[in-house]
Design brief:
heterodimer; A: alpha/beta; Elongation Factor Tu (Ef-tu), domain 3; Rossmann fold; 34% strand; B: alpha/beta; 19% strand; binds flavin-adenine dinucleotide; binds flavin mononucleotide; binds FE2/S2 (inorganic) cluster
Amino acid sequence: MYTLERSPAVHRTVVSDRREPVPGIVILGLHVPHLASITLPGQFAMVVPPSGEQAATALGIYEAEGERVSLMLVVVGPRTRELAALQIGAPLDLLAPLGNGFELDALGDNVALIAGGVGIASLLLPAQALAARGARLTLLYGARTAAALVDADRFAALGAKVVLATDDGTRGHAGFVTELLRALPKHAFSGLAACGPSPMLRAVGRAAAYLDIPAQLALEETFACGVGACWGCVVPHAASSVGTPVGLIRAKRAEPPARESDRFCYARICKEGPVFWAHELRW
Amino acid sequence: MAEATQPDLAVALGRLRLSWPTLMGSGCYGSGEEYAPFIDLAALGGVVLKSVTRHPRLGNAAPRLVSTPSGLLNAIGLQNPGIDAYLENDVANFADRPCAVIGSVAGFSVDDYAYVTERLAARDEIDAIELNISCPNVGTEGETFACDPSLAEAATRAARGVTDKTLIVKLSPNVTDIAAIARIVEAAGADALAVINTVRGMSIDVDRWTPRLGNANGGLSGPAIRPVAVLAVWEVARAVKIPIVGQGGIETARDALEFILAGASAVGIGTGNFTDPRVPLNVVDGIRDYLAARGHSALSEIVGKANPRFAGVR
Ligand SMILES: Cc1cc2nc3c(=O)[nH]c(=O)nc-3n(C[C@H](O)[C@H](O)[C@H](O)COP(=O)(O)OP(=O)(O)OC[C@H]3O[C@@H](n4cnc5c(N)ncnc54)[C@H](O)[C@@H]3O)c2cc1C
Ligand SMILES: Cc1cc2nc3c(=O)[nH]c(=O)nc-3n(C[C@H](O)[C@H](O)[C@H](O)COP(=O)(O)O)c2cc1C
Ligand code: FES
């Protein structure tokens, strides 16, 4: 039987197009022959710095089609600044595709995508896959300010109902995007898929538990290796569904564990994740 | 035209023979398998495995990593399944690696070092043992072994007593006189020294008034510590005859050559892999070109050449 070769590799790419939809956010299109077809929604790349002088950067794979993938960068520090300055024709090497993507089939046919800031970058591929199988989509998208909201129309074009929020109230709901979940009745969606900063994802997890909706969260924490080698990127996890690579252990906060739910191990976000079931995290 | 013969880059650390003078730093390279999609493991001298302890360790709370200028601060806390589960589940996977596989042992008592070393070294999959007496991220206990001469000696002797395989002892830079510790460890039976482990450090979030690492303090690695590490190798190379594996912030062949000219026979690469997994390849190629351009036929010819009082054996 023919199986698709999905194992990650070093991919040599060339910047094919570059877009700066708003100042400080850059979308880099990359020409790369054999990556788009093996990339699953929610997977990421470790981007090798062209200067060779800093650590590689973890970036979600924003678009993937044919011989092109793209990355969306928010300039926050030296590494993202270096990448954002790349021009068309520049070579760029990626380790990709990495991590586990979303289990979209487990989210049902009425899915809310919840994006915080640059978390939007990891949700377009899931939106496309869900739309392709006819799921009803809602995008709840929050950012600091109106000027930091990017490409919401791409989701609308897939048929998603788009609800916006900004911290400063310059567009949509004034406040955190997760506040939009509070007004919902139980089981308002068949599933949630979220990506954004950890405090936001924690809030999504709490809301999902209250609303009794299964939720998958794509975490973005500091990575070093990005390939599961250094154990630096961990999150407390119930351990029920993670594998048993070297060092993954079961332990408890208190001895003996008061309840089964107190048991956890530290799972690697880059390897066992970055997408986790919200109810399995112990954070 | 006859092709010029390639310079010989092979290195001996005690009985252990490395085809290339590059070891992947413990804790930075998993078991090697994690990097196999990105580099041919046969191009590595060897992989030093993540340190293992007698009992399972949960590891430190997140965050465990903070990036700092030209460096990486980490406090992993020796997360590992403990020697029993490690021998049962993991070690068999290390067979047939096309490079050397070096087990790393950490402990909290002299008896721990002897017990874990004996059990790990007994396995055929393991070619040599590195004694991590210098982990800075496990409270004060772990590092006291590298910082206290009598404990460093006792741990080394204990491990030496239970295996004939090559024993590398990894030293801490967080001491006043690293050469003195090196001498004691050599006398206690070490075959080689790894110089250095991470430098103790901290980063504080001034908005939240709290240290950034879950463990508060951590170990600094990467280019930020390279000058500290080169000096440590320089000083140790004047004090001992056994070979040194120099490490700390190596990202290029020229970085590696600094260590070699200071007196290291081989180099360790840890954090450099996080920039680009091809760094170990580039280091080997660059060293080979450097030697060829200068007409040297072997790496050993230049070990310690910048260090007038180099005491080692080439
Ligand atoms: C799985 C995964 C996917 C990711 N996907 C993307 C993506 O698609 N696009 C993208 O732009 N980033 C993404 N990130 C985050 C990105 O890796 C970091 O923002 C990047 O490493 C920052 O590097 P730097 O050197 O520019 O900044 P650093 O020097 O590392 O950070 C500079 C400052 O910015 C803060 N900071 C770091 N990250 C963020 C952030 N995301 N938002 C706000 N402040 C931050 C830091 O705390 C620090 O104070 C992802 C991270 C992970 C783990
Ligand atoms: C994330 C991380 C984990 C590490 N874990 C270990 C370890 O378990 N045992 C050990 O002996 N050294 C450990 N080290 C130290 C490295 O092996 C190496 O000696 C040190 O980082 C300096 O080299 P480098 O700058 O090339 O990384 C670790 C370093 C890092 C960055
Ligand atoms: S970043 Fe190294 S294990 Fe995840």
